[in-house]
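DUF1254 domain-containing protein (Sphingobium xenophagum), 477 aa
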Amino acid sequence: MIARLYGPAVRSLLVLLPLLTSTAGQGQAGNFAAPEAPATQSGYGDDLLPRDEKDRATLLRTIAFDATVYGMAAYLHYEQLHRQVFDRSSDNYTGFNRFAHDRNLAGPDYATFKVPNTDTLYSTAWIDLSKGPVEIDIPATPLKYFTLNIFDIFGNPSNLSNRTIGFKGGRFLLVPRDWSGTPPEGVRVYRANTTQLWILMRAFAQSDSDVRIARAFQDAVRVIAPEGQGTAHGHGAPPPPAPGAIGYLRALDYVLRANGWQTGEEALVARFRPLGIMGDKPFDPDALSPVARAAVEIGYADALAMLTRAKSQLGEPTGTGWMKVNKGVYGFNYVRRSVINIAGLGANVREENASYTSFVDGKGAALDGASSRYMLRLQTPPPVNSFWSVTLYDAKTFALYPNPLNRYLVSDRTKGLKVQKDRSIDIRIQHEAPAGGNWLPAPAGPFFVVIRAYGPKPEMLDGQWLPPAISEEQDTR
């Protein structure tokens, strides 16, 4: 009847119906969209890359550039993970789910990561959720400040700290993002974004008494993992970190297989497949032709050079030479994420620790202790609930500068801190000792300065308080 009413058009449709039905199993029932793209490398076929060798090299160079910008933070965290979890010859080897504790404040020889603070004792642990949840027990403490700063493998931070949970501590269950179980009574759930997590614990320490309390706190924090877990891995042998594009791509491939990626990044990560990332087998550099391999190396080197050059422009300029660093909030801004982690791992959110960085004086000239002496006058000290510090680093090494006083910062806790009658604080930053005042020793060469404000008050977070310019002192000798 329908065919008689609507004629040839319907007859043609009736002929096509069996063909349409035969393809229905390739998609969801009732879905007339095209089937999903193949989920494996082989499914894409040879048309994934241009056949023209020059075009192919151009595309691979571009993809390698993008993959380097995207994953550099993950690679740098993986270096730390491999050293602590897989390299049994490492000084701080622990395996998964165990803390390595630094019992003293960081100094110039601190090697775990760059730009460390010297306000707190550090402890580090890598957590593996591949076999299920891991419990973290935090004791009550009289410490002035603490945080278990938890990072996913890409460097996105969160905190179990006195700011977020108070000084009474508690029990917390770190769970994979797809976990649907029930926690034990009295245990709060922390849902992780990746399977492998880095915990960077900071415990306030300044005086000998502070150090004793901080060490006791380190020992009292407990990690309770599923039985038998600790060193296992299920994504092939974790490759040792190595310089160059090949070492980088091996590590990135492992990280993505073990951890996945952020929601919304599926298309971006799929774009890396021509490099051999997330293929049917782990990354194999021998699958790249010599021309392709050269193109990949160039793309990697170009990206790394760009990210390295951007280190000195971290954050938003304040107009006085300081940069307000928007740490820990990345989203899909991979350049910011990579640059901050190249400058130094462990960047926390501003609500926990607001910081400012300056490589220049108030006139925009590079800070250099070989040619100049400087003054930082804090007319109003940083407004904080916990404490603040002004720390100096060698601009060549990003390490603390060794000096005869073993003084790497000036803070509200510095012994003998001189405060003016108007409550302002003058900090003299120079290579040779001044006649008096608060001296922050500088190298005879380039350096930079970081202000850290732990527990920043609202006037700091909303920009009412900003650090004044570092001024060059006129030579009156």
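The chain has four domains: 2-36, 48-80+234-310, 96-224, 314-472. Residues 1-6, 8-28 have pLDDT under 50 and may be disordered. ok done for today
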